[in-house]
Amino acid sequence: MGKAAIPPVTELQAVPLDAVVDLVNEWSTVARRTAQEQDRSFPEFPHFAAAHGLDTNEFGRQLDNDDLVRVADSLYPAFSVPGDDEAAAHLNSLLAEAKPTPRLALDRGRIVDSWTAPAGRTALLASCVLALRELLIEQGGSRRLGVCSGIKCADVYIDGSPGGHKRFCDIRCQNRARINAFRRAKRTTDTTGV
Questions:
Q1: Which end of the chain has fewer CB atoms within 10 angstroms, the N or the C?
Q2: Smallest Cα–Cα separation from 126: which of 71, 60, 191?
């Protein structure tokens, strides 16, 4: 009887936060369905990775769209939970699923912390969760994570504003909401004669 094969592991780097947001917005089922884009083709992951400075070799194998949808759908709830307790619980469940392992490594003669995870989809999930973990710890908790309040939009965002009061994923959704509010107010004024 032979030894069981040990799955390859990958040394992890936290994915840039803009890449986490774009990954969720491009591949999550909720964001695509809300925007009525579920029939639109997915971006090519190598192009996506290059645009965000990701090394696709870092994940140990080529990821397909099913892998990316699973990662995006797993991450999406972290942006919509109502508070820090729920955000921590969700990210803890993703960490338990991805099983990243802490290690010590040498970087230019200095000992630093390092993380590894099984290659593939699990490594991508772990890298994204590590990025969100750092954000929650360093930037004031889950109030920095959100889902767009725009009509027909469920894209996620990270709020980097000083006050932490962002409500929309981008200026287009914000402008659409302002125009709709203006039109509603104008209709109300026209019907009441005020």
A1: N
A2: 71
Whole-angstrom Cα distance, residue 114 to residue 86? 26
Structure tokens at 90: 């969700």
8 A C-beta contact, residue 80 and residue 149: no
pTM of the predicted structure, to 2 decimals? 0.84
pLDDT of residue 182: 67
Q: What is the 3-state secondary structure (H, E, C) of 93-116?
A: HHHHHHCCEEEEEEECCEEEEEEE
151-183 pLDDT, tens digit per residue, is 889 999 999 888 778 889 988 898 887 887 667
State how far the Cα of 74 lies from the Cα of 124, in Å rounded to an integer.
11
Q: Find out whether 94 and 35 touch, Cβ atoms under 8 Å.
A: no
Question: What local confidence, expressed as pLDDT, does residue 176 receive?
Answer: 82
For residues 37 and 94, the answer to whether their CB atoms sit within 8 Å is no
| φ, ψ for residue 75, nearest 5 deg | -80, -30
Count of C-beta atoms within a 10 Å radius of residue 31? 24
